[in-house]
Amino acid sequence: MVLSLVEYDAVVIGAGILGLATAYHMKRENPDHRILVLERLSGPGQASTAKSAGMFRVFFYSRTNLKLAHTSVAFYKHLEEEGVKLGIRWVGYLWLFDEEAYSRVRPVLDALSARGLSYTVYEARDLEAMMGLRAKVSEDEEASMMGLPDVECGVFVPEAGSIDVDALVRFYEASFLRLGGEIRYNTEVKGLLLEPRKPLGLPGEPFLWQEAHVAGVETDKGAIRARKVVVAAGAWSHKLLSQIGLECFSRPKKRQMFSIRVAGRPELERLLWSKGFNKEGCMPFTILPRPRVYIRPAIEEGALWLSYADELGRPFEEEPELEPKPEPEFYEYGLYQVAVKYFPQLEGCRPHASWAGYYAENPIDHQPVIFEEADVIFVGGASGSGIMKADAIGRIAAALYSGQEEAELFGGETFRVSDLGIKERRVEPELLVI
Ligand SMILES: Cc1cc2nc3c(=O)[nH]c(=O)nc-3n(C[C@H](O)[C@H](O)[C@H](O)COP(=O)(O)OP(=O)(O)OC[C@H]3O[C@@H](n4cnc5c(N)ncnc54)[C@H](O)[C@@H]3O)c2cc1C
């Protein structure tokens, strides 16, 4: 008889926002369980989580998205009210639309309005006055050659803003540790231990006639056995899961951010500090009409961050180094060329900093994926909204771990765990995509 000692009730791979939120809620629900988080980097939230824009919105068409985001944001807001400093700034989102796109989105906006979600429509000329927008780009020969459309109007969503992602990560890390959870940094998981449920001690197990399951992980510092293994390794999850023949329906897409300082450029300072939108007295998170390049006000550092989620032509793959590299030409020939047409204040601006990370994208319906198979729980596929949905995703993954069919989200709303699974998946498509 082979002895297989279980050291932990659960091992969670990855100390990004999703791994930590999941680990915290697992431990909160199961205080006597031994739960260990393993992270190959030297601290929490240093991979894609650290690269994010840290934006959130409580404004989605899909009821799935809305529930995940609105309960998570309510939790973050509650934490701040309790004294946890998360740097939440309600700067709002401003979507700019051309005439055709606006006529297409109007029924969606009407539906959201009927559900009680609020927004304000600004005419193009208001935005010209408020933030120095150039709405009629078609008058510019280059812009019209590039196919950039004129701005018809802007839809401003007030229930949206930014959050200090590092502070949120630290909250989950500290709360998990306070409950007695364990974390080992600088520990890389090399593979999942696939074993027969009833081992016979024969070399070459598990054989196809044996029922196999994951019994722990192999790390660069040795094997660790656990009853359940939670894979929350972000854009790298598919590498661990595909080794044992499991598919997680999410793949890495590189995303890049370029930061422009406004100091010393009065016209840029005026753009950053555009008045009339929010209590911060700054421009909202602004999404251009087409292509949907976005500009994030980074008032904490006196900067504007520019980015764009390019799809076709951008491969689903990770770079060999752990740290993906931003591409200067992506800014120079792409982002800048589009943004400067709508905001001529950006003329001649070069980024002082840039970075890149990954969306772990589920290309089928772009929503998170949470399922269990052979004692492995996968949590991921959060694409570009993992921060704003992290708390709900953590609670749903923890409910799956605890064997519950329904998760209780913050505020008491429930969520059917299998809705984000594979076999009984039930999610509503999103019609308001950035
Ligand atoms: C440029 C950019 C902008 C974004 N903007 C926003 C935004 O505004 N709002 C929003 O809500 N979301 C945004 N996102 C998305 C958000 O950042 C992600 O959804 C979220 O961070 C995913 O968290 P995660 O924990 O799954 O991944 P990660 O943070 O990548 O965490 C996974 C962890 O697993 C570790 N790991 C991987 N493999 C192993 C292994 N074998 N052994 C041990 N450890 C391992 C990694 O080191 C990493 O720390 C953005 C993302 C990017 C890249």
Describe the 3D structure.
With 434 residues, the chain is of the alpha+beta class. The protein contains eleven helices and 20 strands. The protein has helices spanning 17-29, 48-51, 63-81, 99-114, 124-131, 141-145, 165-178, 237-242, 266-272, 328-342, 390-401; strands at residues 8-13, 35-38, 55-57, 93-97, 120-123, 153-157, 160-162, 182-184, 189-196, 212-219, 222-231, 251-261, 285-287, 294-298, 303-307, 353-361, 369-373, 376-380, 406-408, 414-416. Strands 1, 2, 8, 9, 10, 11, 17 and 18 form an eight-stranded mixed β-sheet that branches. Helix 3 (63-81) crosses helix 11 (390-401). The longest helix has 19 residues, at 63-81. The protein starts with 7 loop residues before the first strand and ends in an 18-residue tail after the last strand. Residues 13-19, 38-41, 45-49, 51-56, 188-189, 232-236, 240, 255, 257, 307, 357-360, 380, 382, 384-388 line the site of flavin-adenine dinucleotide (FAD). Residues 13-19, 38-41, 45-49, 51-56, 188-189, 232-236, 240, 255, 257, 307, 357-360, 380, 382, 384-388 line the site of flavin-adenine dinucleotide.
Helical segment count: 11
Helix content: 25-40%
Attached small molecules: flavin-adenine dinucleotide
Mean pLDDT equals: 96
How many β-strand stretches?
20
Over the alpha carbons, how many angstroms does the gyration radius reach? Answer: 23 Å
Which features characterize this protein?
434 residues; alpha+beta; eight-stranded mixed beta sheet; 11 helices; 27% helix; binds flavin-adenine dinucleotide
